[in-house]
Amino acid sequence: MNPSNSPPDRPADNAFDQGVAWLDGHFVPLSEARISVFDHGFTRSDATYDVAHVYRRRVFRLDRHIARFMRSLKSLRFEIPFDSDGLRALLLEAVRQTALDDAWIMMICTRGRPPFGSRDIRLCRNNLIVCVVPFIWLATPAQREAGLTATVSTLVRIPPHSVDPRVKNFHWLDFVRSIFEAQERGSDLAFLCGEDGRVTEGAGFNVFMVKGGEVLTPADGVLEGITRASVLDICADEGVPARVAVFDAAALRAADEIFVTTTSGGIVPVVRLDDRPIGDGRPGPVTRKLNEIYWRRHESAPWSEPIDI
Is pTM, for the whole model, over 0.85? Predict the structure, then answer.
């Protein structure tokens, strides 16, 4: 990035240009962001998080991410020293510390650790960590244009009555195993089904299918993604039939179009499933239309706002 484009209150040689972290009340370089190896967020995956994004120096639907994060904190009995407005101010200030045009804004809360010698989690001091890092894309530009390949995993998604997927979490071992399985099958992505055979989601993304012009996405057993909600909002605005539904892998394989949604890339087409083409094997017209509108919504209010004001 050209230093002349940097915010005027930040020197061009700022150590935070390519990312920054905030913890324990201070901004620090990413390389200095650390927690105790005894933190239950590390030893027990006792943590929650959320990830918003900045695109062309505008933050997208930040209030939606903050609201979900605050709900997750309440669900897991975490406490942080900010209300929603205070957290919002901190997140925006963190981005302003950097020179990144496109970035992730990560908000993480871990359980912390109880005093040594105790196992009482009520004695833990919860840790809030904020990180702004360069944008990490789910797919390359060529892949986003041509489409990805996917497979239906043999692994079953962690049941929602055990770990609520609506609370964003790091319980990813089912996802990690499915990623290895997909790679061994020569696919880019893995879709997981629940115990009942219903399609759920994949590692960091929601699944959509288009059938007969109607857009469908799994109704439950999934993270209620902000990009997922954005697609449903766009469909409502544009008169595109859309609904949450229950469907299995056979229905997904018979779709006219498939796409996934994620903060890490927006709307990404999937053109082959289990080594068979979806439709004509190219990104479909509904997927292309929704993707175009989605990125257009990044350009102005009310869905996005400039960082440097």
Answer: yes
